[in-house]
Amino acid sequence: MDTLETRELRYFVTVAEELHFSRAAERLGIAQPPLSRAIQQLERRLGVTLLERNRRGVTLTGAGQVLLDEARAILDATTAAARRTRRAASATNHLTLATKAGANHELLRKLLEAHAAEPGAVEVDVLLCGMGEQARMLRDGRADAALMQRPFDDLAGLDTEDLLIEQQIAILPAGHPLAGCTSLTMADINDVPDLPVARWPRQDGSYEPGPGPEIHDQSQLAQLIALGRTMAVLCASSRSWLWNAHAAVPLTDAPHVTTVLAWPPHSRSRTVAGLVRTATQLRQEPTLAA
């Protein structure tokens, strides 16, 4: 039988994320024995081993990893369906736009102003989020559209419209010797033992190994740079939030960053279509990157 229930998928995802049956049961608010039985029944029905259990703990098999990825997408889709259905029935017609806090402030301002000037435009609620959270918000229905960045954000399966291409800059403490340079290369900033480059979370929430601090949000990053503890590599529009204690230097060999408007595939929302139409028109303006 190939049919899967959302309840058993939720049970499996929780165990796979915790890799510990007791913690997973506590998180789900159920006893451990019925949780263990549910996973065993799921494995028997599918005819595969999803989890390896031994004295050292629990690990995912290859088949388990596939089901984890698929189950997350399914659970996100069911949650999104419920949220979008409620919004469709709401008396107040509005659109939720997710964007990383501190990113592309000027682009966001121009997009919101241009959209508000359109006949019949709906209200846009701006949902500020952390690094890499926009994709999940689109997939689980918390957001209708999002401003995201290629190549850093997870755009897989989303429809997108390119808006702005920027170079990257190094943001350093204003008093550091490199702050006076007219330009730098990636080799220059990767060879500064007293000022390691900040590390951003990857799409799975983990961090690349390295000496730089693990960054969780823009405020933390700004403070650590001002204190002379780290430097950061960001798109040029990040200059809009720099402090006097910061300096920005162009990077000549860093890959360019493309800001895109993204939305769920096959969306039939007229409000999303209106925002996409505004973004397309805005992209053609010569002052977009100003």
From TrEMBL:
Gene Ontology CC: protein-DNA complex
Family annotation (Gene3D superfamilies): Periplasmic binding protein-like II, Winged helix-like DNA-binding domain superfamily/Winged helix DNA-binding domain
Domain HTH lysR-type span(s) in chain numbering: 4-61
UniProt entry keywords in alphabetical sequence: DNA-binding, Transcription, Transcription regulation
Molecular function via GO: DNA binding; DNA-binding transcription factor activity
PROSITE patterns in the record: HTH_LYSR
Database matches in InterPro entries: LysR_HTH_N, LysR_subst-bd, WH-like_DNA-bd_sf, WH_DNA-bd_sf
Record family assignment: Belongs to the LysR transcriptional regulatory family.
Protein name, UniProt field: LysR family transcriptional regulator
Species of origin: Micromonospora sonchi
Top-level taxonomy: Bacteria, Bacillati, Actinomycetota, Actinomycetes, Micromonosporales
